[in-house]
């Protein structure tokens, strides 16, 4: 028994071995059902390697039950249940030695689990395969596409350039126009996706009640705003955080401020005035024909802690957005031009076919 315990200590942790030793050292009778159940439960915690083919190396015992004799007569590659361990006589267990107990090699070991089932009032051991874990599926190697060499990439780009040159130099004008149209539409889709990144999330608007001014007050503020020289330039970047910050800095010492919009499309100045009034919480006094807006800070003006609103673009981002917008505008115009050219070409081809048919009919009539 000591040899068996030493071999168990090599294979399993000390906590499990202590449980098994306590079961073997119990003074209860072998026929007691409670002691047998305790031993079965303890041995079910051990690895299945203990109940391997090592018992077959000792030969057939003299006094064994029919079930244990059958188990011991099986070939060495079979796996035994823990019940066969209890059916062997106690004197036979002392014959184990360190030389006779050899662990199986890796290709004989198994990852199966020994479980105890009690179905239809019958207690039996079952060997089940372990359930597949999610981590094992995630650890599967994903086949990655082989990286192309620099020379292969250059050859691929060269092939695309040759195809493009063939289409551009095609004698058929429809092929040339369609190639340019497809390329322009791809660029338009790409620009739209780029511009989506500059869309700021709409924050909940604060309750803003603008002050009501009389006509006399408006006239007075308009004259004072025209006379003063302080102004804020609004260029091609449009409305961004820096414009609102400059307005608040001017309102620190002046009641009014001029915002000069250059360059500005016709009608765009009104959009700028509405957006700046919402962001700065100022009052629009007048909009001049030369795209100049006069803002009034208000009677109860208090400079905010954060003068640049958080939901606005920075100066660099605003310039990048302007460049994408300009490119999108020119691309859309180019697409309209190509579509019109393609339509005119189809009309020309239809007219040419019609004239050809008429000439053929006239030739047949004269004959």
UniProtKB/TrEMBL annotation:
Family matches, as PROSITE patterns: CRM (PS51295)
Top-level taxon: Eukaryota
Presence of the UniProt keyword Nucleotide-binding in the record: no
GO molecular function: RNA binding
InterPro entries: At3g25440-like, RNA-binding_CRM, YhbY-like_sf
SMART domains: CRS1_YhbY (SM01103)
RNA-binding is among the record's keywords: yes
Keywords for the protein's UniProt record, in alphabetical order: RNA-binding
All residue ranges annotated as the CRM domain in the record: 211-308
Name listed for the protein in its UniProt record: CRM domain-containing protein
The species this protein was found in: Aristolochia fimbriata
